Structures are given as structure tokens and as C-alpha cells.
Amino acid sequence: MQEGALRCEVVADLAAARGEWDRLALRSGNVFATWEWADAWWRQHGRERPLFVVVCRDGAGEAVGILPLYLASRRPLAVVRQIGHGAGDELGPVCAPEDRAALAAATREALDSLDVRWDVLVVEGLPIDDAWSAFDGGERLSCIPSPVLEVRGMGWEEFMAARSRNFRRHVRRAERELGERGLVFRLAEDPERLPADLDALVRLHDLRWGKQSSGVFTGPDGRLLREFAATALERGWLRLWFLELEGRPVAARLGFRFGAVKAGYQSGRDPEVRSVGFLLQVHAIRAAIEEGIVEYRFLRGGEAYKDRFANADRGLETIVLTKGLLGRSALAARRLSLAVQSRRGPRPWEEKDAVAQRGG
């Protein structure tokens, strides 16, 4: 990024920023920063609400960051949120990682210049080292683990050598036992077959989670994921793996490869068949390493199974920025609520996490 103050402009159309967005998303290495994700999400969740796409430019006029926002609610609070939340994972500005912190002040100035009243801005999925809490008046609302396997040149043999003896024994035993039942790993690659493959994923997800399912494959989020999966397959990003026994899928794992980063998104398995979820996760990591990725992201959540594979934890935080007395009062009430309750009650800027149970 060139030296000098950034200037921001606000556009009310996702398509108007697409060309620059594509370039910045690739630099971010984050599939949830793509224009395609934002566009699919907006069609399912936008409901014709006001849209504010903040485009920050350097002194030469080159776009260095984009933050797509919308007015999520007007009463009792006017709340601005980022497009892509809920079903998305890492969010924040669409830019190169090294430019994120520099965009905070410029974005604040752009928001202050909006003609629309707002009381609270909520930005979720920010990597904790991005310094967005340095926003004037910004405050961390929550923080959640985000485990990562940092590959960066590690080969498959090196990965396995870094696991415990019990881990390696488990892999060998599962391969042997399942191999006797006609073990096959299959990658979804046929666009005509994709709807049926997604149906199989949903069936296995429901088998695994039952009534505890987050509902991520239903309603608007379900339509979003089906639409985005088709786009991702066309772009070469989709990594939907199946473990099949005797010609029948018994485990599925949905992920995305974008740039040099693989993100594991959702999974399902038949709980009656031992070790299939574990072995499919191992296979997905092996395939990603052989593709030459630098990171395998397990996405938000501190589920225990991720500890068997990850070697780092980025952490993601939610930052709240307030404006005016009403916004500050709402945040003060939020602090008091956290201080006196062991479980958080719902607030106007909160929602049920639509991307729970990311594995298992």
C-alpha cells in the first residue's frame, strides 16, 4: 500500500466494486472475502435493506480495502453489520492482511459521513491481531477460537511425523478396516451431480447431529450454501469430499480452496460406522497438502477434534463501535449484562450461530 492518508467512498451496489474486489479478495486468501460469497449472501439475507460498500483508496486512487456493510435494523437500535455474517467465518475488510489495521480509522470516517443514522456497528470474524479494537470507541464484544494447521512447506510425511504414535496407529487401523469394506474417497466434481451430492452431505450432517443440528443447511443459509457451492465448483474452489463404503457415502466434508488456503466448512457422517469422520478429515488434509496449500483453516469454534490436527490458533473477535448516546447506552447495558449473567441473553446485534458443529 502506498504511503499517505486513505480516502473512502461509499457505493450502494455490490457489482460496482466487483473488479477491485476480486483482486483484493485474492490477496486476502479468504474465501469468505470474495465478491461471490457476498453476492450470494446478500440475495438470501439482504431483503432490500440499505447497503453501504465502503471502498478505501490510497493516494494514487488504487483500492486497498473494501468493507461491505448494511443497515441490519432500525429499532430499537440502528445497527450496521457486515455482509456475510452468520454463515460466514473470517470477515472484516477485504484487503491484504498487512493493510487491515490501516483501514480502521479511514472506515470510521466514512461511516461518520453516512447520511443514514446508525447507533451501533458490529463487525464479526476479525482476526484478533488486526487491531480493529483501536477504532475510536470500539470495543471487543467476544472472542472465539479459530484453529489453523500452518503447512508452509510441510509435506505429508512431516505432518504425520508430528502426530502422536496413537494418531498414526489410528489412521493405519482405520485404513485397514475400512479398506476391507471397499473404501473409496470421492471428490465432487460433476456440476450435474452436485445437487445430489449436497443432499448426501445434508443427510449425513443430520445423521451426525440430529436435533442438535444448527440448521445451517435449512432456510436462507441452506439456499446460500447450495448457490455458493455451485459457484465454487465452477471457479475451482469447491472441495466436497466423500468417504464411501461399498458404493455408499458414509461421511462427507465440505470445504473450499481459495488461493493457498483451504477452509474446512461443514461435515457429516453415519455415526454407526466407526472412524469414518476421522479418516475423511485426514484424507482432506492430505489432499490439501498435496495441492500445495500454506494453511488449512478449521474455522471458528474450539471443538476438541480440531486439536488433533491444528498447530496454531488465530482467534476471531467481534468488535462493536457505537455512535451517539443511544449506542453508548446500549453498549453499557451489554457490559452490565455480561457482568451479572453466566449466559448471555439475546441482544439486537446478536444472532444464533449458524455455523456450529463444523466437524466431528
Summarize the structure.
By secondary structure, this protein is of the alpha+beta class. Helices cover 33% and strands 25% of the residues. The chain is built from nine helices and 14 strands.
How would you characterize this protein structure?
The chain has two domains: 7-145 and 315-340, Aminopeptidase (3-Layer(aba) Sandwich); 148-312, 3-Layer(aba) Sandwich (Aminopeptidase), CATH 3.40.630.30. Helices cover 33% and strands 25% of the residues. Helix 2 runs antiparallel to helix 7 (219-235) and helix 5 crosses helix 8 (276-291). The protein is built from nine helices and 14 strands. The chain is an alpha+beta fold and 360 residues long. The two termini are 41 Å apart. The protein is elongated, with a radius of gyration of 21 Å. The protein has a seven-stranded mixed sheet, sandwiched between helices. Strands 8-9-10-11-12-7-13 form a seven-stranded mixed sheet.
Query: Remind me, CATH topology of the largest domain?
Result: Aminopeptidase
Q: Architecture of the largest domain in CATH?
A: 3-Layer(aba) Sandwich
| Mean pLDDT figure | 86
What is the CATH homology-level superfamily of the largest domain?
Gcn5-related N-acetyltransferase (GNAT)
- Range of helix content: 25-40%
Domain count: the total is 2
Q: Which structural class is indicated by helix and strand composition?
A: alpha+beta
Q: What integer value in Å does the Rg equal?
A: 21 Å
Strand order of the largest sheet: 1-2-3-4-5-14-6
Give the overall form: elongated
Compute the number of helices: 9
Low-confidence stretches: 339-360
Which quaternary structure do these chains form?
single chain
What's the helix-strand series?
EHHEEEHEEEHHEHHEEEHEEEH
Distance between the termini: 41 Å
The largest β sheet comes out as: 7 strands, mixed
CATH class of the largest domain: Alpha Beta
Q: How big a fraction of the residues is strand?
A: 15-25%
